[in-house]
Amino acid sequence: MTNSIYDFTVTTNDGQIIKLSDLKGKVILIVNTASRCGFTPQYIELEYLYRKYKNQGLIILAFPCNQFANQEPKNDQQIADFCKNFYDISFPIMQKTLVNGSQANPLFKFLKQKAPGILGSINIKWNFTKFLINHDSSVIVRYSPITKPKVFEVGIQSLLAEINQ
Questions:
Q1: Cβ neighbours of residue 2 under 8 Å, at least 6 residues apart?
Q2: d(CA 138, CA 3)
Q3: How confident is the model at residue 119 (pLDDT cuts 50, 70, 90)?
Q4: Any idea which residues carry the catalytic annotation?
Q5: What is the rounded distance in angstroms from the CA atom of residue 91 to the CA atom of residue 26?
Q6: Is there a contact between 144 and 43 (Cβ–Cβ < 8 Å)?
Q7: What is the spatial distance between Cα 140 and Cα 123, in angstroms, rounded to a whole number?
Q8: DSSP per residue, the chain
Q9: Which residues contact 25 (CB under 8 A, 6 or more apart)?
Q10: Which pTM was predicted?
Q11: pLDDT(152) > 90
Q12: From residue 117, how far is each of 88, 93, 120 by CA, in Å?
């Protein structure tokens, strides 16, 4: 049984392995994304937060997913190009993944158990569900797709203040 987010490794869309244990001491925001979703413009606020807080310890990891109405049909390279060309994304984009079902990425299985959705639901309902994890992974908060990233900026600031004292 996995007890911590730090037990996982993830792969960027260009094949680099990231050990989440290397992110200890950082505030992590994990988001399942899609390029053809009504929530795709949230990339703007995600990039804003990343640029504003990355030097204080924020890392954002985007996980493209095509499980919701075929809204991410692109391959990894096309996704990278889209994110760079349309939103100037500088935070890491992971390989396309599954977030629900028996073949779901183990990281998302873990996150969904640690931070259930509304009324205790486990499955991710749509693109741009966000998980905010504090610097020692003891607190994981789930935000719904409709919650814009700037809405929980104060939460990010609070978690960053804990590590920058």
A1: 8, 106, 110
A2: 10
A3: confident
A4: 37
A5: 14
A6: no
A7: 16
A8: ----GGG-EEEBTTS-EEEGGGGTTSEEEEEEE-TTSTTTTHHHHHHHHHHHHGGGTEEEEEEEB-TTTT---S-HHHHHHHHHHHH---S-BBPPB--SSTTS-HHHHHHHHHS--GGG--S--STT-EEEE-TTS--EEEE-TTS-GGGGHHHHHHHHHHH--
A9: 57, 135, 136, 163
A10: 0.96
A11: yes
A12: 30, 24, 5
Residue 1 has pLDDT above 60, yes or no: no
Residues 68 and 10: their CA atoms lie apart, in Å, by 21
Single-letter residue type at 44: I
6 contacts 107 by C-beta, under 8 angstroms = no
Q: What is the CATH number of the domain that holds 51?
A: 3.40.30.10
- Torsion from C-alpha of 7, 48, 44, 8, nearest 10 degrees: 0
Q: How many residues does the chain have?
A: 165
Domain count, the chain: 1
The tokens describing 106, both together, are 């183990």
Residue 148: domain span? 5-163
Q: Which of 123, 97, 96, 125 is nearest to 112 (CA)?
A: 123
Q: How far apart are CA 142 and CA 150, in angstroms?
A: 14
